[in-house]
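Q: I'm building a small set of examples for a reading group on sequence design. Run inverse folding on the following structure and report the sequence directly after it, with nothing in between.
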């Protein structure tokens, strides 16, 4: 590593050191630097515990426990000048212990670290872009927990094992850290050595993609089957409330959309994983017409909501060239099969009310903007 003197056009060589020479420790130095700034590891992580030893029937202790931005658990193991032979086996044990942690258990671990459960919830919500805690998915059941190994040097047997594990879909990384000294200043060089960050990583990424694609296909097929069964159950009930679905068959799509009789405007029932909505959906051939239709309806907002009997969510969505007016069910979705009856009744009642509310006023609006 070199320190560049811009004015004098000089490159000054910095002195490479070992952690031992600098009398630095794994626990009180390297670990604390990562806690203070997890971006040392090249990504945004939320450290939720250090020196964690809360595993059942063992006194083993992992260095750092974190969450990444996808809600996956990350086990971070720090070594100093040498990775040692057993670091991979050690980390695999820890990540296996963490695989069964529930969302609330993880929050409790973080609460022990911070002091209160409320603070932990607040910090988790903040980390995940201020999303509501109940809607944040943590430690998903696909068992894609992660491992990050940090050391100044990695033995061949360690890198070989890491490559083999990655080939089988285990998300494990090696990060090399090297201290440099310049007078009284200490610098830390950080290098991601695995996965390789160049063309040499192609085969590893290709294998991982194949595994991900196979898994996605299975998940999609399973989800499509579930959605089809939902609409198969829902359509007879929808028909008791409105005739717009009289000629509609079950589908594996998330939505059942029926044209209102006006080009680019649809009545739609939408079912998602954990929520649902009934809506009038506007997407014409050009943005300006979509905006005109939406704004004309918006001018009648008070009348429309009074007729509907409740406030509606008015979404112009200009970036997506569409607009919608909808009512939401925010706590149930297609995955909540035991509550399908309640969910179907919500959609049936509200799509019927939307049809009744908008049919006449939409005719007026379309005449007005033509």
């Amino acid at each position: 590593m070199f320190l560049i003197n811009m004015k004098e056009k000089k490159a000054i060589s910095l002195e490479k050191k070992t952690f031992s020479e600098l009398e630095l420790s794994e626990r009180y130095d390297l670990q604390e630097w990562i806690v203070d700034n997890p971006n040392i590891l090249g990504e945004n992580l939320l450290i939720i515990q250090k020196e964690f030893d809360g595993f059942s029937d063992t006194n083993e202790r992992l260095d750092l426990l974190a969450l990444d931005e996808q809600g996956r658990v990350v086990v971070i193991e720090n070594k100093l000048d040498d990775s040692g032979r057993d670091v991979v086996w050690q980390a695999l044990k820890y990540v296996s212990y963490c695989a069964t942690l529930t969302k609330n258990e993880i929050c409790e671990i973080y609460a022990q670290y911070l002091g209160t459960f409320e603070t932990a919830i607040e910090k988790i919500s903040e980390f995940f872009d201020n999303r509501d805690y109940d809607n944040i998915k943590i430690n998903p059941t696909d068992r894609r927990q992660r491992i990050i190994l940090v050391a100044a040097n990695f033995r061949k047997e360690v890198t070989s094992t890491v490559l083999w594990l990655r080939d089988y879909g285990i998300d494990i990384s090696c990060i090399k850290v090297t201290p440099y000294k310049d007078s009284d200043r200490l610098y830390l060089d950080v290098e991601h050595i695995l996965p390789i960050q160049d063309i040499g990583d192609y085969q590893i990424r290709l294998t991982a993609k194949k595994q991900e694609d196979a898994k996605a296909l299975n998940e999609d097929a399973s989800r499509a089957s579930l959605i089809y069964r939902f609409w198969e159950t829902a359509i007879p009930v929808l028909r008791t409330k409105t005739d717009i679905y009289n000629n509609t068959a079950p589908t594996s799509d998330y939505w059942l959309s029926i044209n209102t009789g006006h080009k680019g405007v649809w009545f739609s029932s939408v079912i998602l994983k954990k929520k649902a909505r009934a809506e009038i959906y506007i997407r014409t051939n050009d943005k300006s017409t979509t905006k005109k239709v939406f704004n004309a309806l918006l001018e009648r907002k008070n009348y429309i909501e009074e007729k509907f009997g409740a406030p509606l969510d008015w979404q112009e969505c200009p970036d997506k060239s569409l607009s919608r007016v909808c009512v939401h069910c925010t706590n149930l979705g297609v995955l909540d099969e035991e509550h399908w009856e309640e969910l179907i009744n919500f959609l049936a009642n509200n799509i019927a009310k939307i049809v009744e509310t908008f049919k006449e006023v939409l005719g007026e609006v379309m005449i007005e903007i033509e």
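The chain has nine helices and 14 strands.
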